[in-house]
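Worked example

This section walks through a single chain of length 297. The input is the sequence exactly as stored; nothing has been trimmed or padded.
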Amino acid sequence: MKVAFAGLGVMGFPMAGHLAKAGHEVAVFNRSPDKAERWAGQFGGRAAKTAGDAAAGVEVFVLCVGNDDDVRQVVAEALPRMAPGGVVVDHTTTSAVVAREMAALAAGSGRAFVDAPVSGGQAGAENGQLTIMCGGEAAAFAHVEPVIAAYAKASRLMGGPGSGQLAKMVNQICIAGVVQGLAEGLHFAKRAGLDPAEVYEAISKGAAQSWQMDNRWKTMAEGKFDFGFAVDWMRKDLGLLLDESRRNGAKLDMTAMVDGFYAEVQALGGHRWDTSSLVARLETPGQETSGQENSGT
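Given that input, the structure is written out below as tokens.
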């Protein structure tokens, strides 16, 4: 298909690359033009000067930007330039409110909007192994499913507009609890005089096993956090879902508590540390971590 992609960050750059490798005709837009030019030089697509330019005549317009307002701006520029009946696919993690707003805006122009937040992080984007939760009309999802398959190992329509964002909120609630549990478990193991590596081998084959344990236990034990999904991004996501919980009445006591713990990590200088840095706030005063050293604190 003729596709555009806006937002070439650590996720968007490889995702757009997978689209080009799959044979789609791809135009890209990024606020930093040099990144768009670099992408075009690597993958052979077209670097556009504006979101509207990238959207000219495309069937599918994909974006992965920063926040609600970024989505509003890019979609407003893109919609009038897209082919009639085109579909916007938004991989940004936003509020469900803005997803519904953009769906209504797209419908008013004879086009469609699918909110499609992702899980899998930078590695998932680079390897084409993302999990994608979608919200929107069934026909629109069916139209774009073969496109997003270029970088997804799984995608599922969760319901109408905003449903993808709501499902992503569930994902972040679960991750917050798991990572806090790992942080406390590791902290306890160290205080008890146990070898963290031996503890991992003992418990990772049983009911405590998780993706977070398999991929983060070792680096947490070593105090290495200079990679992965940043604390600032996680706090943005948790803020969105806590706002939503106030609208729908969900009780998220644990999630609110963990959000506060991440605020403490930010106060330590860990804005860009991986989310597994929750363990840093449990370490004894003066005990340095590799993450602190790498951030210059």
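What to look for: The mean pLDDT is 95.
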